[in-house]
Amino acid sequence: MTRALARGVRLDVGHGTASLSFAVAKRAISLGILPHTISSDIYCRNRINGPVHSLANVMSKFLAIGMSLPQVIACVTANAADSLSLKTKGRLQPGLGC
Predict the structure, then answer these.
(1) At how many degrees (to 10) do helices 55-64 and 69-76 cross?
(2) pLDDT at 98
(3) Which residues of the chain have pLDDT under 70?
(4) b/e per residue, 38-69, with b = 16+ CB within 10 A?
(5) What is the model's pLDDT at position 69?
(6) Where are the alpha helices (DSSP H) in the chain?
(7) 55 CB contacts (<8 Å, ≥6 apart)?
(8) What gap in Å lies between CA 59 and CA 67, rounded to an integer?
């Protein structure tokens, strides 16, 4: 994993219905391996019946397993925009459009 990260591989959490392991995520975070972006992979079934429900719910899970609020917010805003080369999106700064 560290070699992949050194090569520029970016990590996204696409929560999905059955693709998130709390044990693996917690261990990775404890080792300093953080996701670059957090997404929900939401669709009708995992939104209504869980386990995703909403992006806010997924964000709360990452707060609960050890990421800080600024880290989680960056993963769904600035880091996500940067991953798509949208340097003027995903941030609140004077002079940037909305």
Answers:
(1) 150
(2) 62
(3) 46, 96-98
(4) bbbbbeeebeeeeebbeeeebbebbeeeebee
(5) 96
(6) 2-6, 22-30, 44-48, 55-64, 69-76, 78-83
(7) 38, 39, 40, 42, 76
(8) 9
Residues paired with 13 in a beta bridge: 38
Measured from the Cβ of residue 88, the count of other Cβ atoms closer than 10 Å reads 10
Statement: the pTM of the whole predicted model exceeds 0.70: yes
Do you know the residue count of the chain? 98
Q: What is the pLDDT of residue 76?
A: 92
The CA distance from 73 to 67, in Å, is: 10
Q: Give the SS3 label for residue 13.
A: strand
Q: Which two tokens stand for residue 58?
A: 């997924």
